[in-house]
Amino acid sequence: MTAFPVKDIRRYGVLYLFILPMLLIVVVFGIWPIAKSMQMSFTDKGTSLSLAPVYIGMKNYIKVFTDPYFWDSVWITAKFTVFSVPANVLAAFLLALMLGSRQIRTGSLFFKLAIFLPVVVPIVATSVIWKWMYNTDFGAVNAVLTSIGLPKWGGLSRSNTVLWSLGTVELWKHVGLYTIIFLTNLQLIDKEMYEAAFMEGAGYVKRIRFITIPELRPAFMLNFVYATIQFLKTFAVAMVMTQGGPNYASNFLSYYAYSKFRLAEYGQATAVGTFLFIIVLLTTLALRRLMRDRDEGSRS
Amino acid sequence: MNTLYSNRPVFRVLLYIAALTAAAIFIFPFIWMLASSFKTTKEILESPLTLISGNFTVKAYATLARVGGLPLSGYIWNSIGIVGLSTLLTVFVTSLGAYAIWRKPNMPLFGVLEKMFLLSIMYPYILLLMPVYVVMFRIGLLGSRLGIILFLTLGPIQYFLFREFFTKIPTALIESAQIDGAGEIQTFAKIVIPMASPVFFTVFLLTFILNWENWFPVLVISTSMKTYTLPVVLLNFDSQLEVNFPEIMALAAIVSLPVIIIFLFTQRRVIEGFAAGSVKG
Asked: Do residues B100 and A6 lie in contact, with contact meaning Cβ atoms separated by under 8 Å?
């Protein structure tokens, strides 16, 4: 970065007025709270909010890291992310192939709107609807299952079905965005490649495998990174639908931190916050690097 | 063209069956919500799947006139006011910021601001709110609508959409205006804004939809139900034990329908905006 000439600062000084509102917002509601959060994670809970907090070193971190519920949360969050990310990316890819197909002309807008609709509807509303859809007495899910002769689904009420249920809702809610990202990229692929492949006798599956998938690699990577970040931070469904239950089975990391916050354990809550932030940051950086290396690899 | 590819009718029929099934799965929960909101509790227990109620009733909506001891209209005004003002403010703040950073990225502080912004939006939102609670308390905005409005201004997608658009403006255009004597403010107002009006509209729509949906900041910054917006009222209402089911679905419908309607009328812009904003983020 070259030094900025002083006379230019004077000349373009009015631009500082342009950034002033954004600077204020970012500092007051971004940087200050992040710094505050890190600071609070080293303070005693009773004094965290006071003007003269008592610092207790790493105690909050030690307390969190020795709490079996914390490691349960880490495990739940990791498991949920590892299953959900490929499921979402794959579902989005298949939906995009379907929507982008030349065979679907009539009604393609309708299908696109239907898949995107859950993305724009407030997550509290979709979560509340699904919570009741899973109700074992009169929910639609079990009504459909029993009507076609299948056994009842435990839904949110059992610890061995709750994560699958939430995973389904999360997919339903977010897959539309990933689908649109695939679809946008799908339309950028040069049609002549398909025509040439077709002339040479490549069937549908071959064309997908040797043209579509390689051409969509950037979109795959992008969706992968996006979905990973999103699922590591899973919160709303736990808050609205399960409160982390039953028996802590859906106690995701964010929800674990929030429960600490509700118990006024500010130090521990912010310690978990710092931990999750570092995880998200490292994952993002690692995935970004992976993406760059792959790109460079394919170019050389 | 079409004949070049697989045009076997079987394939086409299968594809349509798949697409219709998918669409049905994505839409069904909303239909079920609406259907249930017009039923009686007894009817829901007996036949949860019927979509057209035998004894259609709007009783659930009528009961919702007051929620939590306060009139529902108050929450509707909260939603409209908080979401409307925060949307305007977001558009104002991010467009100016993105423009200035694009215009002179090397000005002292500009690069730092962008880095601080990226850091803020990468911090898990839910966890950011815990210290924001403390900050709001310190600056005296805890429990106020102003606090909620200001916090909602921190929007990532908006910034990237503006940034992306501004990079397409030819620098020559701006320079020639400035040779003619226009200052930075005039250039922005007379040249950039008219050019950017489609992106302004897109950002406006997206921000409205996103802020309408945003609930956690409202929950954390509020100290009483007086400042709740509709999604938070729904959350609060749903977690009470004694409320009945058709009313919950009716309230969910009231929360969802405004955005569903806006989305259906502006779908192309909204979908493209979401896709573009996320790609750049």
From this structure: no
Residue from the list A21, A49, A272 with its beta carbon closest to the beta carbon of B96: A21
Q: What distance in Å separates residue A278's CA from the closest CA in chain B?
A: 9
Q: How far apart are CA A117 and CA A119, in angstroms?
A: 5
Put simply, the answer to whether A26 touches B117 (Cβ < 8 Å) is yes
Cross-chain CB nearest to B26 (options A14, A115, A137): A115
Q: Per residue in A235-288, pLDDT tens? A: 999 999 999 889 899 999 999 999 998 898 889 999 998 898 888 888 888 887
Phi/psi for B70 (5° steps) reads -120, 150
Per-residue pLDDT tens over the stretch A140-195: 888 888 888 888 888 888 888 899 999 999 999 999 999 999 998 888 888 888 88
Collect all residues of chain A within an 8 Å Cβ-Cβ radius of residue B106. Answer: 1-2, 4
Cα B16 from chain centre: 31
Residues 6+ apart with CB under 8 A from B189: none
Instruction: Identify the residue whose tokens are 């409320």.
Output: B243
A33, B184: Cβ pair inside 8 Å?
no
Q: How far is A11 from chain B (nearest CA, A)?
A: 10
Instruction: From chain A, pick out residues whose CB is under 8 angstroms from the CB of B230.
Output: 122
* Neighboring chain A residues of B216 at a CB cutoff of 8 Å: 235-236, 239
C-beta atoms of B131 and A1 within 8 A: no
Return the residue of A nearest to B255 by Cα: A125
pTM: 0.90
Closest Cβ opposite residue B100 in set A19, A125, A181: A19
Which of B255-266 are b and which e, b meaning 16 or more Cβ less than 10 Å from the residue's Cβ?
bbebbeebbeeb
- Rounded to the nearest angstrom, the minimum Cα separation between B3 and chain A is 10
Picking from A41-55, A286-300, B32-46, which range would have the lowest pLDDT averaged per residue?
Answer: A286-300
